[in-house]
Amino acid sequence: MTSLLTLRRAFVINRILIRHGLEEFLAPTPLSRLTQLMRLFALTSNRNKSLNRGQRLNQALTELGPIFIKLGQMLSTRRDLLPDDIADELAKLQDKVAPFESEVAINVVEQQLNSPIDQVFSQFDRTPLASASVAQVHSATLINGDDVVVKIIRPGIKKKIKADLKLLYLLAGWFEKYSSTGRRLHAKTIIKDYQTTLFNELDLRIEAANTSQLKRNFEDNSILYVPAVYWDLCRKRVMVQEKISGIPIGDIEALKSADVDMRLLAHRGVEIFFTQVFKHSYFHADMHPGNIFVDASNPQDPKYIGIDCGIMGTLNESDKRYLAQNFVAFFNRDYRRIAELHLDSGWIPAKVSVEEFESAIRTACEPIFGKPLDEISFGQFLVQLFQTARRFEMEVQPQLVLLQKTLLYIEGLGRQLYPKLDLWETAQPFLKSWLKETYGPKAVWLKMKNKAPEWLEQLPEMPDKINKLLDQVEKREEHQHQLVNAIQTLKKAQSRGAQKIVWALAGTALVMAGFSELPGWLSAQWGDVGLLTLSLVCFMVSFRS
Ligand SMILES: Nc1ncnc2c1ncn2[C@@H]1O[C@H](COP(=O)(O)OP(=O)(O)OP(=O)(O)O)[C@@H](O)[C@H]1O
Questions:
Q1: Of 85, 146, 259, 286, catalytic
Q2: Where does the source fall among the domains of life (predicted)?
Q3: Residues 108-119: pLDDT tens digits?
Q4: Could you tell me if the CB of 249 is within 6 A of ligand 1?
């Protein structure tokens, strides 16, 4: 049954792709035969020939539905993988879905909270505030008078997501199997990452927990405000949080007419990003205009408000070191250092020549410096670096890709707010102080101080441990010695064996010669005796050796 449904959907996808002139994406897959058949029987025709391939892909994904639209949106941020013309068009995809009935929304809320709606809310706005492919948001007021928003998962969406994912896996599998581009793009991994993102979005407790964590991280830093979560009203398919109000970040006109200090706002955006990355190792990774607002109550001290923490990125110490050191080296145009960092840390295999890698990075990054300082892009640098490193067999970690995508967005936004934004001005002191704080003498001293109790605890066992270690070293040396001896004996035996074989072969050859015709100058009798004696000698030597 399921496979029949999948086949039907595959047929529909095929038709849509042909209609938008995108058969080239199917060419290497088994669907291409179906494509030929469909064209033969004129089941579909190729429209939109005047549009470029990015625009045609945009239209096809829109027609394929929300799960494909979301995939396109996600892919639009993978500039390290996709050509710019396609990424630009995919970025324009709109996730606009018709809202579901408010009765259905209320049913879900009552079922999830196990309580009639009017016992939880004094007012529930039946017209949704927003409606996307996975969830819908309604305004409401709690019995205690707090203004809140209620996010509700679209009923039946999980089944649809699963069916579409099944198909996407099938297509990605074909794409990887039959096309070198598919293999280069790691098509199946892309779908796997997408699946993780989608499934996380289906459980609103994950988003609620992320929101709480981000709020806690910025408790002592007022430049970012995060709404409070009402934990007792959060379930898998319903989340209630504080209602915020602010100017949407994309509304530049409104910000300007509110007399907001745009330069400060742009720099604070960069500061928030670097604080999340380097101080908290935890960053909001779904930064789009719908998720960022500005509190302009004091326009000369504007503050950000962030919502929708469904997708967050985390970094470990080595990721942060990688980023900080590379950024600093990049701004010093020290490509040698970047190459050395990659080799020394084992990010790229040791067999790669440092000169070759340095030259590839220089070729990729020099054009970025051809621009004025206020156009230099860290995000673009990461795109180029990852593209180059991939060519040298570096597996770029997903969290770094997520970060690169967020950084590109932050830069774009910052320059939209304040076109003269110089990222380095905010980033440099930040990175330098982070490197100093983490790796400077004070940091080393602090780390040693933190480790001291652990070391003290182990101190009494130290002599025993050192003894054991020395024993091991001794044993290892003994083993090595024995091994060398064994190899030498083996070699000798091998050469003696070879000698044995040679002598035995010579003996055999002489015996055989005895049975064959002898040269005329040798009398038959003496010849036979001589050959026999010689062969006997050979066999004896062979036996002895
Ligand atoms: N706490 C809030 N206060 C006020 N408005 C909110 C709040 N949370 C969400 N909204 C409104 O609802 C919209 C959608 O919210 P949210 O981004 O969380 O949903 P989503 O389903 O993840 O949407 P998308 O997929 O487009 O990001 C927001 O753009 C905003 O207008």
A1: 286
A2: Bacteria
A3: 999 999 999 999
A4: no
